[in-house]
Amino acid sequence: MAGEILDNRGRGDAHWHWPAVHPEGRKFALITAAASFVTALLAWETLAWPLAFLTLGVLAFFRDPERVVPQGDNLIVSPADGLVSLIAQVEPPKELIVDDGSGSAGLTAGPVTRISIFMSVFDVHINRAPIGGTVRRVVYIPGKFMNADLDKASDENERQHVLVERPDGLMVGFTQIAGLIARRIVPFVKPGDLVAGGQRVGLIRFGSRVDVYLPAGTDAKVVLGQTVVAGETVLAETGTQKLIEGVSQ
Q: Does residue 208 carry a catalytic annotation?
């Protein structure tokens, strides 16, 4: 199905299938499966069964389902699965603003809308590009491992900033943030790479958060408390400002 065009008039072929497991997770599943097998041979059933269930949990955590990415030059799609836990007007991280010596400009200083998406251990943890274009920056920052649901996690936790520039010059930055359990941010891209909107660009192991910095003059099309899907949910349309309200029910 990957690369197939589907539309709102029924074109394409859609059917459910078991999601693939990302290669990053296969080694962990192999280790737990081997441990379960060995303990079963030794008749240590009190360990064998929990290890078997842990293997299934690892496979589920690293699942990598296909996504149907909305197409449109003005669309910004969610880079992560999870809960919209914070929406605020903030200054973008300095790492995405200051001159990094690469010859490519960063984001313009000034308050913009930041959408924070919290990923629990039950969410898919593959992160995707919010727009198509050229990766201009990938900046890793070591830090703490406090609860990723806290606002200050954006400034204090281990994190990785990514900046993508569209062909027309518009830039969107996002930050992968480690959490209490997460201990590694794994990038799939580097500066200079070309990415499509919704393309896989990295993952964070075992619970975390992603912050998205919308361009100036752009409001979120999602509301606080909404569950979003990486590569599919439209977070914003560039240049659009409108109050959107939701009702919890």
A: yes
Whether the CB-CB separation of 81 and 124 falls below 8 Å is answered with yes
- Grouping H, G, I as helix, E, B as strand and the rest as coil, residue 179 is coil
For residues 128-151, average pLDDT: 82
**Is the CB of residue 87 less than 8 Å from the CB of residue 65?**
no
What is the pLDDT, as a whole number, of residue 148? Answer: 55
210 near 162, Cβ under 8 Å?
Answer: no
Rounded CA separation 148/154 (Å) = 8
**Which residue is catalytic, options 120, 154, 208, 248?**
208
Is the pLDDT at 180 greater than 70? The verdict is no
* Predicted structure pTM score: 0.88
The correct CATH number of 75-237 out of 2.70.70, 1.10.10, 3.40.50, 1.20.120 is 2.70.70
